[in-house]
Design goal:
Blueprint (H helix, E strand, L loop, with lengths): L7 H12 L8 H25 L4 E2 L8 H13 L5 H9 L7 E2 L1 H25 L8 H14 L1
Parallel strand pairs: 1-2
Length: 151
């Protein structure tokens, strides 16, 4: 069984603070799937960018971080105490071997990146339905589809 990147109470608190949403323990696996998919996509593009620049190390600037994700990283910095960084760091160890090394700067920035895409997800639910209080499976599917097109 895989470990959760964010504990249940912190997950619930984060979604409540950034988007006034109520999420439940049963939604945590959806969040983990979302984080897994998006981190993998970012890292694969980062690998391709590093290779295109004749480097054998993936740097933070190799990742395709849109302006919204960058802004959410700043927002995450203000909420940093809300998330347990250790499970996020363990997640880095489980990333697939893409044939390149991860720079220390990339490793140290991953908690912020993961926090930012989590914040973006929560806010996406509110864009999809401003009156939404509790995301249902169909909301998660729509959000996944949006991120699949953009990340």
């Amino acid at each position: 069984m895989r470990s959760n990147l964010i504990g249940v109470s912190r997950f619930e608190s984060l979604f409540r603070k950034v988007a006034d949403l109520d999420v439940y323990k049963s939604d945590l696996h959806r969040l983990n799937d979302f984080i897994d998919a998006n981190v993998n996509d970012l890292i694969v593009v980062g690998r391709d960018n590093a290779i295109a620049n004749a480097r054998d190390v993936i740097e933070p600037w190799d990742l395709p971080l849109a302006k919204g994700i960058q802004r959410s990283m700043e927002e995450f910095d203000l909420l940093d105490e809300e998330l347990d960084i250790e499970p996020i760091m363990r997640k880095l160890v489980s990333l697939p071997d893409l044939g390149l090394a991860y720079s220390d700067e990339l490793v140290s920035s991953m908690p912020r990146i993961i926090g930012a895409i989590t914040i973006c997800l929560a806010k996406t639910f509110k864009v999809l339905d401003p009156e939404l209080k509790n995301p249902q499976p169909e909301h998660w599917e729509k959000a996944f589809s949006i991120f699949d097109m953009l990340v």
